[in-house]
Design brief:
7 helices, 45% helix, alpha/beta, Rossmann fold, six-stranded mixed sheet
Length: 192
């Protein structure tokens, strides 16, 4: 038995040290399943490292295939995450394909000089996600992603609802959100 494939969804503009620390902490907290050779295997698929940004059409077409191979989704949501359309699309596709919210973990990522108020701002922005206001690095990517959403629903409203409902479930409660911050290379963790 193995842990399977983990998809890590994060935004490039967020604190990369805190993201790295979050992945390490997340892995430490996962139960280790027994295996034949006592060394469980797990593959990690990092969205921004694995998607071909030079061929966005193929990446978009293959996204369901990539996500189908992943057993868990780890969302590392920092300051820029709530405004990124690709990030929301990955959550959406995972939910539509798997339908299991318990296979999704959402951790809030804050910078070394930020506090709980920054985490609260991120939570509030996640809960107000709007595909019409979300961005991509390239406007062509944004147009393609919005076209995919609109071809499915006719309007981004149902897409927004699916993404917001999942995020509300994961970070909406007072004690349900995980916050990861790095300070002087020391991991600080708390619940909001």
């Amino acid at each position: 038995m193995s842990l399977g494939c983990l998809l890590i969804v994060s935004a490039g503009g967020d604190d990369s040290d805190a993201q790295y620390d979050a992945v390490q902490q997340w892995a430490l907290e996962r139960p280790t399943p027994p295996s034949e050779n006592s060394s469980p295997t797990s593959l990690i698929w990092i969205d921004r490292a694995c998607l071909d940004t030079d061929d966005i059409n193929t990446s978009l077409a293959c996204l369901p295939v990539f996500l189908a191979g992943c057993r868990r989704l780890l969302v590392l949501a920092g300051e820029t995450y709530p405004s990124r359309l690709w990030c929301a699309m990955e959550i959406f596709v995972f939910v539509r394909m798997k339908g299991k919210h318990d296979e999704i973990d959402v951790w809030l990522i804050i910078g070394p000089d930020e506090g709980a108020e920054s985490a609260e701002k991120i939570k509030a922005r996640l809960l107000r996600f709007d595909a019409n206001k979300a961005e991509c690095t390239l406007n062509e990517d944004r147009q393609r992603l919005l076209a995919a959403v609109e071809s499915t629903y006719g309007t981004p409203k149902p897409f927004n609802k699916i993404v917001r409902d999942l995020l509300a479930e994961k970070v909406g409660g007072v004690d349900s959100a995980r916050i990861i911050s790095t300070t002087s290379s020391t991991l600080e963790e708390s619940a909001v």
